[in-house]
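FYI - complex with MF3, inputs then prediction.
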Amino acid sequence: MVRIYTKEEIDKIARSGAVLARTMAVLKKEVAIGVTLKHLDDVAREYIRNEGGEPAFLNYQPGGAEHPYMASICTSINEIVVHGFPTDRTIKVGDVLKVDCGVLLDGMYSDSAFTVIAGKGTQKAQNLVKATHKALEEAIKAIRPGAHIGDIGYAVEYVAKRSGVSVVQGLTGHGVGYGLHEDPYVYNYGNKGEGLLLKPGMVFAIEPMLCTGRGQVKQLKDESWAMVDKGLSAQFEHTIAITETGVKILTSL
Ligand code: MF3
Ligand code: CO
């Protein structure tokens, strides 16, 4: 079931999203060569709690998972796409680091992610990160009442193709609000005009994930998802709401 949120509910999700946006801004500043992933996790947890929220990923146990997730952020490097665990590994020159975080505030979840390259990075890495950021922008531009969910995937795929990178297969965005993961799946590929009709009040986490290789992923023992061909991957994510007239980003400053 795809929920339709009221204006009041969307305002609440926006407040959760505002805390998350500020958390992400703080995390971006903390990213530096030599810093541990665990440090970023500590900063996120403390910042969110200080704002009166709770880290949404901490103790989260999706159906099928063997144990709850024991951190507040996911830190996924290079060929790891998502769900990388913030260990005491340090950030190294050239790392393509994805930081994914969620906030629970006043009963509402928000979800967001960004990618940064530590240091300058190769041309290939820069192109990938730029393309993935563009894919999120274009996906959001495709969203308005009367559009279809396939338009979102089409936009992501179009940017990927034009940039010479691939869409990561099998990992998707999702509805978000009362739950961290709600219906529908928001695919990063699709056809214009196909799939769910977008209506005011729907709230989605849009999360394009692109890669330099062929797009196949597998889950590792630590439950992170990695590119099978060890190519680089990037991800950007915003929580958005569909309004009467268009779209509102709920996780930007
Ligand atoms: N943003 C991640 C996703 O949409 C959520 C990870 S939840 C975790 O898949 F608890 F597993 F980290
Ligand atoms: Co998400």
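The mean pLDDT is 98. The first helix runs from residue 7 to 30.
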